[in-house]
Amino acid sequence: MMRHSGPAAARNRGALASASDLLFFLDADVCVQPDTLERVWKALSSDAGLDAVMGSYDESPADPSFVSQFKNLLHHYIHQHGNPRASTFWSACGGIRNRVFREMGGFDENFRRPSVEDIEFGMRMRRAGKRLALDPRIQVKHLKRWSLANLVRTDVRDRALPWTRLILAEGRMPDDLNLRRGERRCVALSWMAALSVPACIWNPWSLAVGGAAVLGVVFVQRRFYRFLVERRGRGFASAAIPLHLLYFLYSGVGFGAGLITHCFDRLRKALPGGSEKRAEAARRAAAPRTPPENTP
After folding, report:
1. How many domains does the chain have?
2. In the chain, % of residues over pLDDT 90
3. Reported pTM
């Protein structure tokens, strides 16, 4: 039976087959704009010191459902206001020099699901001193239909958990994109609001604290809500607040779960026999990540 290798392996095979100086990665549920490829080419050809560039979803996601519109508009807004000196790579819309991709060994094929293989790749690039850029003018259209259940499951299992473990292994949390300090404050405020509901059994005034916490989230995210009002109207922006609070709540759950598993892994390695396991893990990590040559 054929074993599923995942998108990281598939991208590596595609890159291996390319003889072009530049590589461009695009997700299967994404469509380019008329000028997307030209902008990627111009960004990399006009700056010899730039190693990779990534873009953004546009503000007109294809699926009309509320959850899909919210999720994709949130992603669009975050990338439109991200640091131009990117701290990561994005394989849904990202260009990179072929020689740099091969030098870095490609995507880590241990990621067998669509996950954070591009983020891990970007972290390796940054550690190696490579230059990455975020150009919000490079845009693509996302076609994915999000349900609420799929959104929560994907964001926690395939994003928050593995990303947290990468951050803890790196020992540094970037102040960029959805990890900015304001986003972290909103996670704390959202949990304060959520915990105020059961706390009102003992102290009714806790609801006032919870209400203040919700207002705090709205204040911190006021520019995003203004963006939603301008693009979709006041009704959409108002309806987005509970879903945005839920996003911060489960992001906090994902971070907490990632922290627990990271601590558990460290404890397991410290137990008798852990040194041998660490040595084996180090050997695997040091092994070349370059995808194998094509075979007949």
Report:
1. 1
2. 60
3. 0.82
